[in-house]
Here is the input.
Amino acid sequence: MSVAGRIRSMRNMGKVTFAHIDDGTGSLQLFVRVQNVGEKSYESFTQDFELGDFVGAEGTLMRTRSGEMSVLASQLMMLAKAVSRCR
Here is the structure.
């Protein structure tokens, strides 16, 4: 399954990060684990991606332990970087 959207929230929990993305029609959670995307991709995701960025992800649709529908990411890509205003 492939999904894309704007990052609305991110929660880093060690070797797992949850991110909610929104594509204008709805919202979905990305479940990003080091063991699924690799250390280099995971590090890039947690350090280079931020709120407002557009992200693309490929993975498997699943439910987390809390019951939330999520995409267990196997690949991540930056689609567009959010630009902040200069002050």
